């Protein structure tokens, strides 16, 4: 088994309800497959309810909350999408502060689908080149980002590496890039 992320701890930030399940589970499995340590972070403890588009999916146990988790304990951040998930996160001050702290610390962040809404709220997209679910392109442009319709975009023109993808169909490319980019970060 490859060990590209051995010794790294990756935060996966989701709301208590609404994360697109495959955008949580597939990157999570990828991190585990390359010996990384994924950690589920949410705004409250207990369990989070994932969704398969509009249908309830599985529940997942929270490992840490945004009000107690320390960015120093993580090497990178993954932001799964789903419409409700980032819409909730962008209204929670501790979640927004948690996300912004990864940029302030120069740590890599990977966001897929609607997750860039949280990045917009954190004020970290201006001057960045990125992609997202197509309905967010105007929001991203209005926040100062350059939007591209690509399966995955890696942007290094900022304080950290930012990896973005459009939707679940892009997960193979998203997972491949996050593995490569997260491995460049010293554990």
From TrEMBL:
<dbReference type="InterPro" id="IPR002818">
    <property type="entry name" value="DJ-1/PfpI"/>
</dbReference>
<dbReference type="InterPro" id="IPR029062">
    <property type="entry name" value="Class_I_gatase-like"/>
</dbReference>
<keyword id="KW-0315">Glutamine amidotransferase</keyword>
<feature type="domain" description="DJ-1/PfpI">
    <location>
        <begin position="9"/>
        <end position="178"/>
    </location>
</feature>
<dbReference type="Pfam" id="PF01965">
    <property type="entry name" value="DJ-1_PfpI"/>
</dbReference>
<dbReference type="InterPro" id="IPR006286">
    <property type="entry name" value="C56_PfpI-like"/>
</dbReference>
<protein>
    <submittedName>
        <fullName>Type 1 glutamine amidotransferase</fullName>
    </submittedName>
</protein>
<comment type="similarity">
    <text>Belongs to the peptidase C56 family.</text>
</comment>
